[in-house]
Amino acid sequence: MAEATFRIWRTEPGGEGGFQEYRTAVSDGMVVLDAVHRIQAEQAPDLAVRWNCKAGKCGSCSAEINGRPRLMCMTRLNQVNLNEPVTVEPMRTFPSIKDLVTDVSWNFRVKKGITKIKPRKPDFADGTFRMAQRDVDRVQEFRKCIECFLCQDVCHVLRDHNKHEEFIGPRFLVYAAQLEMNPIDTADRIPELKADKGIGYCNITKCCTKVCPEHIHITDNAIIPLKERVVSRYYDPVTRLLRLFK
Amino acid sequence: MAGYATYDYDVLVIGAGGAGLRAAIEAAGAGVTVGLICKSLLGKAHTVMAEGGMAAAMANNDDRDSWKVHFADTMRGGQYVNNWRMAELHAKEAPDRVRELEGWGAVFDRTPDGRINQRNFGGHRYPRLAHVGDRTGLELIRTLQDHTIYLGVTVHMEHTVIELLVDANGVSGALAYDRERGRFHLFTAKAIVLATGGVGRAFKITSNSWEGTGDGHALAYRLGAELIDMEFIQFHPTGMVWPPSVKGILVTEGVRGEGGVLKNSQGRRFMFDDIPDNYKPQTASDPEEGWRYTQGDKSARRPPELLTRDHVARCINREVKAGRGSPHGGVFLDIAWIREKLGNSEEHIKRKLPSMYHQFKELADLDITKEPMEVGPTTHYIMGGIRVDGDSQMSTIPGLFAAGECASGINGANRLGGNSLSDLIVFGKRAGEYASQYARSRKPVQVDPAQVEAIMKGSLEPFERGTAGENPYKVQEDLQETMQANVGIVRLEDEMQTALTALDGYWERASRVGTLGHREYHAGWHTALDLRNLLAVSEAITRSAIERKESRGGHFREDYQEKVEAFGSVNVMVKRAADGSMQVTRIPIPPMPDALKQIIEEQKS
């Protein structure tokens, strides 16, 4: 069986870390997560890695493979150059817990701060709604999100500028967008998006869209329409003028 | 000795898949304090893997559907050893449970007139599965998760329960460790809801993630709770078989619901060759009728590919054993063929089965719109579990409730696809409701500190043995091999006795596993602690399977291939005896009320 080398980020208690090299057997059809698991089972039982479904559906095994944000379970070894060591390191935008595992709890706190769905009264006495498929297509695109947080990892507003307190990041702009565009929702999130959710920080470089394993058009379909709503509410000259006379 | 953090709740929910979240929502709504423990991050539980949909007789696509038909379908699928009360409640309440999800943000696929769209599935007479493409589980878990976070439920993510605690009045708490730091946490609670899912990790080929180690089953068993129906395991007929690293990953039944057909290496649709008598009146007589059924023709009957999962899995197994399998040891599942019928078949398949398209494209380099897939049976689901009261979901231990896969009853000998997601929300709600009621009247709980100390000490022993001990991964792997080979899809007395002997050996090896390093996020240590749970459920499965000397639903005996009437009125029950050994008994199923019997008779035609 062929072998390959993996340079995996390992940490000490206290947070110091560095790459450690492991050679392990590789075979046809393997993904990076398989290699990490084999190393864990045979050489490094205390190697920390998060995973669940192993089918790209749960979004647990996010990491940076050869510097690129990816799901380990969906990165086949024939997509990477095995003649050189394959680097596997944690998402760098989040604090380290151990090895490949990061503290993503910030994301869970951010979500709680977004106004929840406020449904209109059901259309019928039996509690049911009527919605056309074409009106929910867009929302369903956003609801494909598996919360892997790779978009958060790659977003420079978070990664390079650390605006975690002022900007909710692409994942939660998508979350807000699916609520805003849900046909039965009656809440208004435009004021909060402009104010403390920091939508203005996004300068649509589309890095998030590029890394999304679900291929959600984050920038074009979620963020830009939300930005347009903010603009037409707060910055459109005609609306502003009208507001003066209200 | 290490200390521990303490928490106190009225209701503690263990597990945050569909059932656990739904229980937490109900309990929080009842005004009690709620803690929720999950092994992974919130929203990652195995529920996300569910694909096809959730069954509820809303009659949106076919107004002939009703709870009665759903009830009869569920009982037929379960070969009548179900808890009929649960099957009744499930059929009656599922429509409301599905509808309320919309108000919480779920966005289902729609019918042309704007209602929730329902699809066909194996064993369901009418199109009944509310769905979102082929990612319905994700929709369910995200909806429940996003609803829960606003309700004041305290969520303890990446915590694993080691043991449940009792006092004189019933269950009183749980001791857990957190993955991040490896520290201990003592939860006291007036009522506990187990919603820990399944046991797939006891087998080598499984659709389950690392979490499916039977924790809830084993925790309840060690307290003395009764487990029933443990011999009934669902081997899903269609798991991926290649590449090796993804062997077992699920291929949704929705592929067949949308017109996909099963063929052997000779190109024969072998499912037409073996249709059980009790399903003949409902099964298509030729491929053309089957195709029309999948396209919504109400006068057509379903293709044999949509027979119950146990049957389809055995047929596939037979083809492979007879040497008519595909190159990697499965059979062919072909959806690409529908191009003969539909002009825009590629687009159609991608829209109806987006994640299957994605899964095969990325993991197997295969385009399902152009080529057939290779599939084979995979350990998917356990019908058996903690014996509960049908109405309240309380186990035989006061204050201990169970819902979802770790509970037993609704499914009998075989679960219909789509009945799991609806089970989670129907009985998750009930468990939350009755657990909070129970908590209100429960006397203050007590915990024995000496017992807590002893559990903590035992849990840390693998570190003391270090590398001198057994490698926990190796024990787990050997256990999986044994169960796969000897207690799998086709069972024999001798092989199962071999498995029991092997399990004795694994119990012994598990008692001396060791690992090195620190307690922080240490997978080797976690695997060591999971072993006792895997072993307990493996033993329960094996002993129950030996006891049931007949074939029924998910339990097929090569040496007793027919159904035996006497076994049709009992459940096999296992319980921990006073000396610690596993006791196996048959318990009679309570007689069904005449009104329900009549429904079953009416639906037999």
Structure explained in plain terms:
The complex is a heterodimer of chains A (246) and B (605). Chain A is an alpha+beta fold. Chain A is 35% helix and 15% strand. Chain A has 10 helices and 7 strands. Chain A has helices spanning 32-42, 105-112, 133-142, 150-154, 156-159, 169-180, 190-194, 207-211, 218-234, 237-244, and strands at 2-11, 17-26, 62-65, 68-71, 86-89, 96-98, 101-102. A 5-stranded mixed sheet of chain A has the order 2-1-5-3-4. Chain A has a two-stranded antiparallel sheet with strand order 6-7. The longest helix of chain A is centred in the last third of the chain and has 17 residues, at 218-234. The mean pLDDT of chain A is 95. Chain B has 605 residues and is α/β, with parallel strands linked by helices. Chain B is 36% helix and 17% strand. Chain B has 16 helices and 19 strands. Chain B has helices at residues 18-29, 67-77, 84-103, 136-148, 215-223, 254-257, 287-294, 309-321, 345-352, 354-364, 419-441, 449-465, 472-486, 493-510, 523-547, 594-602, and strands at residues 4-14, 34-37, 54-55, 118-119, 129-130, 154-156, 159-167, 170-178, 184-194, 227-228, 233-240, 261-263, 331-334, 373-382, 385-387, 400-402, 407-408, 570-576, 582-588. In chain B, the strands form 4 sheets. In chain B, strands 1, 2, 6, 7, 8, 9 and 16 form a 7-stranded mixed sheet that branches. In chain B, helix 1 runs parallel beside helix 4 and helix 1 (18-29) packs parallel to helix 11. Chain B is globular. The termini of chain B are far apart. The mean pLDDT of chain B is 96. At the A-B interface, helix 1, helix 2 and helix 3 of A face helix 3, helix 4, helix 10 and helix 15 of B.
Summarize the structure.
The complex is a heterodimer of chains A (246) and B (605). Chain A contains ten helices and seven strands.
Cα gyration radius of chain A (Å): 21 Å
**Helix percentage range of chain A:** 25-40%
Spatial ordering of strands, largest sheet of chain A: 2-1-5-3-4
Proportion of beta-strand residues of chain A: 15-25%
- Write the element-wise H/E pattern of chain A from the N-terminal end onward: EEHEEEEEHHHHHHHHH
Low-confidence stretches of chain A are none
